[in-house]
Write a structure and sequence with these properties.
This protein is mainly β. Helix content is 6%, strand content 46%. It contains one helix and 19 strands. A hairpin with a 4-residue loop joins strand 10 and strand 11.
Amino acid sequence: MNKKTIIKIALISLLVILSGCSGIKLPGINLLGRGNSNQGVIMEQENVCLDNNGLDIRYMDNMPPERIYEDDKFYVSLALMNNGCRNIEKGKFTVSVDTDSLQLEESPTGTIEQDISNFRGKSKFNPDPELRTLTYTVDSKRIPQDRKFLEKTITAHACYEYETIASAEICINPFIKDMFDIRNDVCQPGAVTLDETQGSPVVVSKIITKTTAREQGADLEFYIFVKNIGLGKVKEYNEGECSGSQLVKIEEVRFSDFTTAGNGFNKIACEPMAIKMRTEDENYVRCKATLLEKKAAYTTLMSIRLSYAYDITNTATVIITKPEE
């Protein structure tokens, strides 16, 4: 082994040690082609929930090719990744083609459905997303004599159930009479804006806390704002289908010993228990609770769990041409 080779090996070893000890990021390599999510993002180990897309659908590079001949055979290959931090318990994936010009060899109807249930999401202990690859064989048909080419679309679509879990520190101050009552206490009720890296396409964006003092306690109000920041649409999941209702269900709201699952003195009442998704400002639900006795102002963690169906589509275009003469 010559002197130059020894120096090269030593330098490479030093880079590896430095990148491991000081968190230096080495550049990522994009192995996939056309897709519907940000590419080349380096995931931090301490926070694996940086991607809010949930299920990601990508076409593998050149599968399908951008141009094909009529009466030819080609392949469509898709990579499905659950980039979010929740498991997909129930879901369905479909791929479809225009049967006037294309034919899926596995399906005469031009559509193939596949179950994508039990699709693992990312976690602190398993930060790499589960990857499933699907490949289909497609035949192109003859195009009309008076046409030099046809442009056709291949559609990949998924409908699945998903969850959002978010938390933020809120202020409970039973001595506040109304929103204009400013006191020099430990904390003041108001608006809290949440970090949107929640590992889900639907996020809790803001919580507004209001308190109204009573003689023996206080009435508490919470306005929980929700928005869709993913690439798909919120739907309802019903027997494997995504319906048109854009509803986000409130599964649980909890703080201190109060919860929507409780009853009596520790009950949080949210009306309604589902949010109709419209615009960012309108996507909220109001929840109420009652403190039965006066307590000093304090901060506490509010946790929120939402459920919904998510509908996402990714398309690829192929151009069918006649063979060159």
